[in-house]
Amino acid sequence: MTMFHFFNCAILTFGPHAVYYSATPLSEYDTIGTSVKAALVYLGTALVKLVCLATFLKVPENDSFDPYQELLKALIGLIDVAGLYFALTQLTHRNISQNHKFQAVGLGWAFADSILHRLAPLWVGARGLEFTWEYILQGLEANENLVLTLSLAALGSLMWLRKNKPKALIPIIYLCSGMLATMPSITSYLRRSLGWHFPKVVGFEIFSSILMAFISWQLFSACQRPST
Questions:
Q1: 60-89, pLDDT tens digit by residue?
Q2: Residue 129 has pLDDT above 90, yes or no
Q3: By CB neighbour count within 10 A (0-12 exposed, 13-18 middle, 19+ buried), where does 219 fall?
Q4: Tens of pLDDT, residues 200-220
Q5: Who contacts 67 (Cβ-Cβ below 8 Å, separation ≥6)?
Q6: What is d(CA 209, CA 65) in angstroms, rounded to the nearest whole number?
Q7: Long-range contacts of 167-173 (CB under 8 A, 24+ apart)
Q8: Region 133-161: what's the mean pLDDT?
Q9: What pLDDT, on the 0 to 100 scale, is given for residue 146?
Q10: How large is the greatest C-alpha to C-alpha distance in the chain, in angstroms?
């Protein structure tokens, strides 16, 4: 029964990445190489972030919200944006369109994040003797992280790869990108300062990911239209 619970949680956590790759044109254009390269770039940025966090942040004495520490975390979190920039603009990709490029990069990025942050807790905790909803919620959190990462990659492709985008949309693109990049600090504030429990935080993350995905899709579609 414990292994059954583990496999259920693992499928919920990692399965949507495989489904997304198979159900979209990414599999037809064989973009797995691009996703693997993006995953490796993510691991590199994660290592840089870990060094920066260990260097500049102090160990908190309690679990309260510290604005100064969270500001540093948000600034260090911008390393992810730099990593995405490198993955989208500097890596050599196959002859694929902008639409497929940002999806392949976002998918590889999100999958590497799930492997790095959720595989070990699943293996250790989900095989316990007692059933808990925590790892199911972690699986749902991995799904919303996939959506948020794809949204950020889409906005990144508009900022760095799309040259002739409407000028009126540029501030909105940068604003939405900033909101996505600082989402970890927002959820940390909700959890530590407002005292939200994990299920409520996950619910907020799911709602936010759906909303930001819709906005990103509208912005991407608007930038794809030919200018008149």
A1: 666 666 778 878 888 888 899 999 999 998
A2: no
A3: buried
A4: 999 999 999 999 999 999 999
A5: none
A6: 23
A7: 169/219, 169/222, 169/223, 172/219, 173/219
A8: 92
A9: 96
A10: 63
Rounded Cα distance between 99 and 97, Å, is 5
Contact of 60 with 44, CB cutoff 8 Å? no
Length of the chain: 228
Burial 146-164 (b: 16+ CB within 10 A, else e): bbbbbbbbbbbbbbeeeee
Least confident of 34-43, 49-58, 118-127: 118-127
Give the CA distances from residue 149 to residues 30, 38, 40, 113, 227, in Å, rounded to whole numbers and listed in that order.
20, 12, 15, 10, 28
Q: Where do runs of H (alpha helix) occur along 161-224?
A: 170-181, 183-192, 198-224
* Helical spans, DSSP H, in 57-197: 67-89, 98-125, 134-160, 170-181, 183-192
Cα separation, 12 vs 131, in Å, equals 16
Tokens of 227: 């200018």
Judge contact between 41 and 91, C-beta under 8 A: yes
Mean pLDDT along residues 99-128:
87
